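Q: Convert this sequence to structure tokens.
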Amino acid sequence: MITLCGNTLVTFINNNMQIHSKTKKIIKKILRYNISNNKDLELKLSEMCDSLKYLELLLSVEKIAKKKILNRKIIKIKDINNFFYEKK
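A:
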């Protein structure tokens, strides 16, 4: 997770991160894949879907989160999960 503290960008990794329910819902709906544990968060989206499914996935993430994905690299399922845990 990346947070902004003053002018300093602070990053830390939470190894015991829970899987957000919205992440599970989107992955199950679009990719038809059930996420069951934290190891599934490390799966790369490029190995799971083609470019059209990837774009559909990004659009549905923006639609459900009601905010834009700006200058972020969404490579793994973990990146989508972190996107939902970020504060607006």
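The chain has one domain: 17-85.
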